[in-house]
Amino acid sequence: PKVIDFGIAKAIDPYQAGQTLFTQQGVLAGTPEYMSPEQANLDAGDVDASSDVYSLGVLLYELLVGALPFDLKELRQKGLAEILRIIREDDPPPLSHRLKTLPSADEIAQQRDTNPGTLRRQLRGDLDWIAMRAMEKDRQRRYSSAAELAGDIERYLERQPVIASPPGRLYRLHKFVSRHRWPVAAAAAVFTALCIGLAAST
């Protein structure tokens, strides 16, 4: 038997939370590899059902590619603060790319009665999009419920268009800037100074 712990209950009543340390705000409860970015933000108290959608996305990812989104050994070698930062900020690789980097890709494909090349082609596209949408860092872009995620999987199985779609370039640019504000600001300042200097010298 295995305990799936991403559905751990969290006391929202201050009196109940005071009865146990494990549901108090700022205390880590759960397995980091399956945690949503909201759970990894220990200061946040606004964890809702979309957190479960994220964890279901991790389970889907693991079922399809035979590995977790982030390498378990590498992740566990880092300190807790870095693990939580990765969960909050780093996007996992798409399924098809993750399979390509796994040393056990042949064995994983064999367990699915196929070969690595065919499995990569099967994962590329709709399945990549479904898993990545379920694990979006921005929960506004995630599936709104487990039922919506299940509906998209059913659409895939029935060869219908899925509602998951890759984020546009503007959205990716916005996410990059929000993650790297200071380096982007410094680069923009240098670029502006160069432009002003070039205009002045011309």
Short description:
With 202 residues, the chain is mainly alpha-helical. It has helices at residues 14-17, 37-40, 49-65, 72-77, 80-89, 95-101, 105-111, 116-123, 126-134, 146-157, 169-179, 181-201.
Radius of gyration: 20 Å
Main structural class: mainly alpha
Sequence of secondary-structure elements = HHHHHHHHHHHH
Overall pLDDT: 81
Unreliable spans are 20-24
Specify the helix fraction band: 55-70%
How much strand?
A: under 5%
Gross morphology: globular
Q: How many separate helices?
A: 12
Topology, number of strands: 0
Please summarize the sheet with the most strands: none
Distance between the termini: 74 Å
Assembly status: single chain
What does this structure look like?
The chain is mainly alpha-helical. The chain has twelve helices and no strands. It has helices at residues 14-17, 37-40, 49-65, 72-77, 80-89, 95-101, 105-111, 116-123, 126-134, 146-157, 169-179, 181-201. The radius of gyration is 20 Å and the shape is globular.
Salient structural properties:
single chain, 202 residues, mainly alpha, 12 helices
Q: Helices and strands in order, then pairings?
A:
Layout (H helix, E strand, L loop, with lengths): L13 H4 L19 H4 L8 H17 L6 H6 L2 H10 L5 H7 L3 H7 L4 H8 L2 H9 L11 H12 L11 H11 L1 H21 L1
Helix pairs in contact: 3-9, 6-8, 9-10
